[in-house]
Hints:
GO molecular function: metal ion binding; oxidoreductase activity
Low-confidence stretches: 1-32, 38-54, 335-345
Protein name: Fe2OG dioxygenase domain-containing protein
CATH architecture: Sandwich
CATH class: Mainly Beta
Distance between the termini: 22 Å
Number of strands: 15
CATH topology: Jelly Rolls
Largest sheet: 8 strands, mixed
InterPro entries: DIOX_N, IPNS-like_FE2OG_OXY, IPNS-like_sf, Oxoglu/Fe-dep_dioxygenase_dom, Plant_2OG-oxidoreductases
Structural class: alpha+beta
Keywords: Iron, Metal-binding, Oxidoreductase
Helix content: 25-40%
Bound molecules: 2-oxoglutaric acid, fe (ii) ion
Family: Belongs to the iron/ascorbate-dependent oxidoreductase family.
Amino acid sequence: MSCLRRNALATTSYWMISRLPSLSSTSMEPSEKDADKSLARSWRPARSLASSRHVVNHGVGEDVIQGFREAATEFFRMPEEAKLKYYSIDHNKPFRIFSGSLTSHNDGNDIRYWRDCLKLRCYPVERLMHQWPSQPEMFREHLAKYAVAVQELARRFLRLIAEGLGFDNHDFFEGDLSGGETLMNVNYYPRCPDPSLTMGIRPHSDRHLLTILSQGEVSGLQAKYRGRWIRVQPIHNAFVINFGLQMEIVTNGLLPSVEHRAVTNSAKARMSVASLITPKMDCRVGPAPAMLDEKTNPPKFKDFVCSEFTEAYEAAAGNREAVLDFFKIHHTQNPACVNQQFNMH
Ligand SMILES: O=C(O)CCC(=O)C(=O)O
Ligand SMILES: [Fe+2]
């Protein structure tokens, strides 16, 4: 296991992938392997988020990204009556719209949120697409193409992460650990007359393994870095890759989830599309055995069933420290005993 690689991966949990001059989603030439090598080479630490490094060769065509972004924009443009039937605060709905905060939990603060969110389950496509809205026309078709392409990208990323972590098994994240239904937040932030009074999304860490975010062209995303909020400047056709809390736990804290938020702006509306790669609800999640060493790196977190995590996340309103606290091991137990519980697959 190369310590250097681990350190490189650990330095920041934010990467941006910019457009691919040489590859498109339809033409994976010269070969997927070469594209992966190129991705792997670019897994270097960002010196700071202010000078984010960009990873090229993500392989998702501009037509696929823009096609879905346009269809989603059309969706938000539909008359209120057409959208109202989807409005729901029921988390079990496969497709719904809601307004405002990230979780249903009220954290007692007085912040107002200007966000409409279209929340849906987007992968596996064949199983879920009949639940998506049939209007606007082509919405389903564009979403299906986007969801498949982003899922493939996530799969490649997870392999690279496993490789970068030095795992013998590069398929470590395959199967139940990343095989839950992929969720998608399509966030629409209207133009806001006074951004000092409203937020887009509160500060939070994403709950799952990995988020692949298309920001669009309008800035608004901010990430916490050394205690300060740094703007993540959008890049045309780029994805922001964001490690979630469960990645932080699986890697025993080596790849920390990034706290981020979205602010509103008075000049332009903004739309972002976040695809959240998640474990199966009944999957046991905990620090990967390959990450642990009884003496030097005992487990920092207990394992849990993914559905328990959802409850903790809601209760902590997405706050990184508060969520992690639910699962932290305060080392009164013998780490050797705890070790035996971790069986990820
Ligand atoms: O709008 C953004 O850039 C961030 C969205 C986000 O953090 C989320 O959907 O979890
Ligand atoms: Fe997020």
